[in-house]
Amino acid sequence: MAIKMQLVLLALSFILPSGLASPSSNGSPEEPIMTLDDDLESSVHIVHYQPEQVHLAFGERTDSEIVVTWSTRSLPPDMSSVVEYGPTETAASDGLRQRATGGATKFVDGGRKHKSQFIHRVTLRQLEPNTSYTYHCGSAAGWSARYQFRTVPSSESDWSPSLAIYGDMGNENAQSLARLQQDTQQGMYDAILHVGDFAYDMNSNDARVGDEFMRQVETIAAYLPYMVVPGNHEEKFNFSNYRARFSMPGGTDNLFYSFDLGPVHFIGISTEVYYFLNYGLKTLVFQYEWLERDLQAANEPAQRAKRPWIVVYGHRPMYCSNENDNDCTHSETLTRVGWPFVHMFGLEPLFYKYGVDVAIWAHEHSYERLWPIYDYQVRNGSLGSPYENPRAPVHLVTGSAGCKEGREPFKGKIPVWSAFHSQDYGYTRLKAHNRTHLYFEQVSDDQNGAIIDSFWLIKNQHGSYEDL
Ligand SMILES: [Fe+2]
């Protein structure tokens, strides 16, 4: 495998441009837009120490660590990044008695104005399980408002996490946002999965669109771990806005990572490494090798018994029945079969070999549920109960949260492997009830929150599909 891989990489290096593109080489001309902001910048010195764009993520230890990330235009005079926090129960009387410090990284956007900001990160460690914490972030130069989050009930697997899952939500036409904010304020979720494509685009208008999007989702993300993977809309300047603004675990600039939540092992991947070859091939190879190791570890008998569900999420689907020319409308999707001709790094064989239960995608601005499928073969559990002990992964496409590009239509003739589709704007809810039962439902924002699709995925045993 290693020699074969080297030969392929050598061959590809002759036909593909490699290395990182510089911002200027990849930039497209953008119309200058003069705003009040520009007027002020040109005539008045403004300092900006006030934290904004506050958002959370799970740390390396999902059960006891939360990373708080925020932004300031100016670096505070004492150059500090601080979170003060404490149990909500005593915060009113005792104040925020715990204190954690981190650091700030200067981020310079690749656009023509090279707008800069400081991204602050602080990891809260050794948090108590099942506890509501109140926190604020900032420095002696300015504190954020107070926010709350709740830690996971337990590091064990015997609890039932609830998540909202969606992709393709932009600054403009973020139709599902208000409903997601309401859901969050009602305490419906333990985490969010945003499966790529943010803001449209984060780098647009000298990264102001990214700033405003991060302010929009603060109403969710300052209260819940907001877990993300990159989409094609994050590509500009080698995904620099995406890499800079989030704080996923794993030390891969937010590109791929995994975490455990209740009975589920979640794996987030970048599908974009298969498509933007101008940034080189290394990340694709690293991710593929990491993914196989991660799947192997998740399949260690004791681990799979404790946390039997494996859910993978990434931006571009392997299958879809939409009416456009995206890769998923073709039969040889790059992520599914790997490189043309050599068929290396294909993910579907890995998913099949290591018994991935659910694969969640976005990119198509619609919702689609597939029958259990492998290599275009429907492999239902049985005719009467397709999702009971299925013999292949279940794929969902949920990219309809709302963006300025609008909806994606479907083809007149829907393939036999497609079980349900909808063009309604909305998002997916997952509740992982236990080691044998997952429940999914699709919320339609167009229909005032109506559930337009739901199904139970039931498995008595988990593992490779190769022997089934
Ligand atoms: Fe996309």
TrEMBL record:
Cleavable signal peptide: 1-21
Coiled-coil annotated residue ranges, if any: none
Alphabetically ordered keywords of this record: Glycoprotein, Hydrolase, Signal
Reactions it catalyzes: a phosphate monoester + H2O = an alcohol + phosphate
GO MF terms held by the record: acid phosphatase activity; metal ion binding
Protein EC: 3.1.3.2
Domain Purple acid phosphatase C-terminal: 392-454
Residue ranges of every copy of the Purple acid phosphatase N-terminal domain listed in the record: 51-151
Pfam families membership: Metallophos, Metallophos_C, Pur_ac_phosph_N
Segments forming domain Calcineurin-like phosphoesterase: 163-367
Protein family: Belongs to the metallophosphoesterase superfamily. Purple acid phosphatase family.
Full protein name: Purple acid phosphatase
Organism, scientific name: Drosophila lebanonensis
Gene of this entry: LOC115627047
